[in-house]
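User: Predict the structure for this protein chain, please.
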Amino acid sequence: MAQGFQASLQWERINELWVTEEASADLTGFKSDRRNFNIALWDPTTNGIRYLRALVYELATRLSDDDWSKIEKVRNRDVGDPVTVRYEGRTVCLDYLQAALELGFIEKELDLGGARVLEIGAGYGRTCHAMLSNYDLASYTIVDLKNTLGLSRAYLREVLDEKQFSKMRFVQVEDIDTGLGPDGFDLCVNVHSFTEMTPDTVKAYLRLIDERCGAFFVKNPVGKFRDKSMDGHQKGEEAVRLAMQTGPLRQVLDIHDSQAVAAAVPAFIEAYQPGEGWTCAANTRGMPWSYFWQALYTKTGDDLR
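Assistant: Here is the predicted structure, written as C-alpha cells:
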C-alpha cells in the first residue's frame, strides 16, 4: 500500500477472518452474517445490551416534559441495577420509561386521584411503583403467583416509603376469593401477563373485572410469533410449545409487519373487553413494541374521569 494509506491492524484481522476474498464470491445471506456484522451492523446475537441502550436512548429523546416528570417522581429506580441511559442529565431505564407512557395513556381517560387499583400479574412491581409515586391512590392490590408475589413484595418494600407501602395488599392467586375483600376497584391493570395465562384463566379474570372494577387497562401482544431468529428459542422448544397455548390471542403473525399487526387489533379489542356493559374508551400501540397494543375500557355508568 502507498505510505499513509493502509489498513489498521483491526481491519487486517477482519479481512483475514471474516471479510475475506472468498466472502465476496457468494452474497447469499451476507447482510445477516458476520460479513455485514463487521461492516455495517453489530452482531445482534452478542450485542443485546448495546441495542437495548440504543433503543432506550432513542425513546428518551422523544419523551415530553410530562413524561420526564412522571419518571423523576419515582424514587429508588436504581434498585436492582437496571440497564440505563443518561439523556440531558437524567437517567432512565426501559421499564420506567414504559410506565410513564402507560400512565400518560391512562390519565387521559381516568382521574386516578383517590383510586383503588387492582393489578393482575405485576411482575416485580414497576407499574405499581410508578402509579403510587405519581398519584394519591386510596389502595393498590396485587394478585399474583406465590414466587412472583414474593418478588414484588420485596421490591416494593424496598422502593416505596411507609405511607405508600401501607396502601399495598398482596394476594396469592389461591386466596383470591377471600383476599380481595368486599370492596370494588376503580381500575384494574394487566401488563403483559394475560398473554401467558391459559385462555380459561383469562376468562375468569375478565369476569372478575366485570363484577368488581370500573375501568380496565390492558397492554398485551396482539398475537404470537414463531420466528426463531428473534431469540434462538433459547428457553427450549418446550417453552415455545407452551407459549403457543396461552393467552386469548394465539394467532401467529409477522410481528414486524404493521399491516399484519393492525389487522389483529379488532380481535384484541374484542378479546379483552370484560363484558357487554363495557366500552373501549381508547386504544393505541403499546410502545415500544411493534406487536403490543394497549386499551382502556370503562364500564357504562362509572364516571371515573
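The mean pLDDT is 95.
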